[in-house]
Design brief:
Length: 232
């Protein structure tokens, strides 16, 4: 039975079927008009955004990682601008990502380990105009994202300093190849490759190949085709 203050249209974007069904049932029992918008039925986030706008929800419960579509953060800003509340429900424990969602306009971020009662409580508070996160918590999480974004910007700047040959070498390292393998593929001496690897580490300001690969992965950097044979 719906209680006082319940109700309102809620759109549910969640690609884990059992979790989605549990949320849908809990929301329906509290008097909400629930619309399931299935991410697996679309190819692009833009299409998903249009479907969400079409059903005109008051609130969207949004999974942060959608199979086939990837990170859904790009949906938060347009939905918020359209006057739709967004509550992110995610399996990610990365607080910098949470801060990114909040900076984009999400009302709050909830871990999927939250109980259904906790999630329903947040939905009710959002729809009835009550705060769901303290200013201090929000600011701390957004600051985590800002710090990471600045760090990633620095990493991208350092990656831009790599020569075409060093980019190829880093691409090989990201593919898990050792110096001897890179030398064989690139038809270079191992000593030459080791020199190029040292240059990559110096320009990225890291002390190991593992750290270089990790930095490149964190910013989503791609070396392009490693069959390019440009000189340094």
């Amino acid at each position: 039975m719906a209680g006082p203050g319940d109700g309102g249209r809620v759109a549910l974007v969640e690609d884990h079927q059992l979790f989605a069904e549990s949320l849908e049932l809990a929301l329906s029992l509290r008097g909400h008009d629930v619309v399931r918008v299935l991410p697996q039925e679309v190819t692009y986030l833009g299409t998903l955004l249009e479907r969400l706008k079409k059903v005109s929800p008051q609130l969207v419960l949004l999974d942060l990682d959608l199979a086939g579509l990837g990170d859904s953060t790009a949906l938060i800003g347009p939905l918020s601008a359209a006057g739709i509340h967004v509550v992110v429900v995610t399996g990610s424990a990365d607080e910098a990502r949470w801060g990114r969602c909040l900076a984009a306009g999400a009302r709050t971020v909830l871990p999927k380990s939250s109980s259904l009662a906790e999630i329903m409580g947040v939905v009710r508070r959002v729809l009835t105009g009550f705060p769901v996160m303290t200013k201090e918590t929000r600011e701390a999480l957004v600051a985590r994202w800002s710090d990471r974004a600045a760090d990633e910007g620095d990493t991208l700047d350092r990656l831009e300093k790599l020569t075409p040959r060093e980019r190829v070498v880093l691409g090989h390292l990201m593919a898990g190849r050792a110096v001897a393998e890179i030398a064989a593929v690139e038809m270079l001496s191992p000593a030459t490759v080791r020199t190029q690897v040292k240059s990559v580490l110096a320009k990225l300001e890291v002390s190991s190949q593992l750290a270089a690969v990790g930095a490149a992965h964190r910013v989503g950097w791609g070396a392009g085709e490693t069959d390019q044979r440009k000189g340094a």
